[in-house]
Design brief:
31% of the residues lie in helices and 11% in strands. By secondary structure, the protein is an alpha/beta fold. The protein has a single domain, classed as Rossmann fold (3-Layer(aba) Sandwich), CATH 3.40.50. β2, α3 and β3 form a beta-alpha-beta unit. It starts with 11 loop residues before the first helix and ends in an 18-residue tail after the last strand. The structure holds iron/sulfur cluster. The site of iron/sulfur cluster has 11 residues, from α4.
C-alpha cells in the first residue's frame, strides 16, 4: 500500500507522517455509490445541500471504482447483480472501506427470496453496517464518521495471515433524536 511500505520503522518522524497521511485519507474519501433501490434515494439526499456530505470531503462521488476508496452498498442486491458488486470491489484501489447501508444490503431485509442476496457481507468484507429501512442521512453520516475514526486510529484496514482483508464489522447505533418538522404540515383537499 505505497506509502506505508516506505515507512518501515516507528520513530517520531514517521509517526507524525502517518498522522498526516491518515488525516489526508479521512478528509478526502471518494465514495463509490452502489445504489440499487430505495436506500439510494437517502444516499442522494445525504449528498444534497441539507445534509451536505461535502463537509467530510466526500462530495466527489467516484463512478470509476479505480478512483474510489469507500464503497457504499445501498439497497438490495440481486443474485444477478452480485458479480457486478464483487467486480467493483475488486477494482477499487487499496486501502478501501465498505459501508453496508440499510437492512437489505446487510441482511436481505424483507426480501427473503432465492433471487436476493441475504447480506452482502457474505461476499465482500463490510466495515460499517448502517441499520434502518431506510437509514436517514444522519445515520449514514454517522457511518461515514465511524470510518473516519477508524482511519484516524488505525490507518489501513487489517489483513489476516492469508492476506485476506479482515472486515471491521462495526454497527452504528443512532445517537441523535429526530426533531419535529420546523414548519407544521397540513394537507388540504
Ligand atoms: S432497506 Fe428498506 S429502504 Fe433500503 S433498499 Fe431495502 S426496502 Fe428499500
Amino acid at each position: 500500500m505505497g506509502i506505508e511500505a516506505a515507512i518501515p520503522t516507528d520513530n517520531i518522524l514517521t509517526t507524525q507522517l502517518r498522522h498526516v497521511v491518515n488525516w489526508a485519507r479521512r478528509s478526502s474519501m471518494w465514495p463509490m455509490p452502489f445504489a440499487t433501490a430505495c436506500c439510494g434515494i437517502e444516499l442522494m439526499a445525504t449528498a444534497s445541500s441539507r445534509y451536505d456530505i461535502a463537509r467530510f470531503g466526500m462530495e466527489r462521488m467516484a463512478f470509476s471504482p479505480r478512483q474510489a476508496d469507500l464503497l457504499i452498498v445501498a439497497g438490495r442486491i440481486s443474485v444477478k447483480m452480485l458479480p457486478v458488486l464483487q467486480r467493483i470491489y475488486e477494482q477499487m484501489t487499496e486501502p478501501k472501506w465498505v459501508i453496508s447501508m440499510g437492512a437489505c444490503a446487510s441482511t436481505g431485509g424483507v426480501f427473503d427470496t432465492y433471487a436476493t442476496v441475504q447480506g452482502c457481507d457474505q461476499f465482500i468484507p463490510v466495515d460499517v453496517y448502517v441499520p434502518g429501512c431506510p437509514p436517514r442521512p444522519e445515520q449514514l453520516l454517522e457511518g461515514v464518521m465511524a470510518i473516519q475514526r477508524i482511519i484516524d486510529s488505525d490507518g489501513i484496514p487489517p489483513k489476516g495471515p492469508d492476506g485476506k482483508r479482515i472486515p471491521l464489522g462495526v454497527t452504528i447505533q443512532p445517537t441523535h433524536a429526530v426533531k419535529p418538522q420546523p414548519v407544521g404540515l397540513n394537507v388540504q383537499s
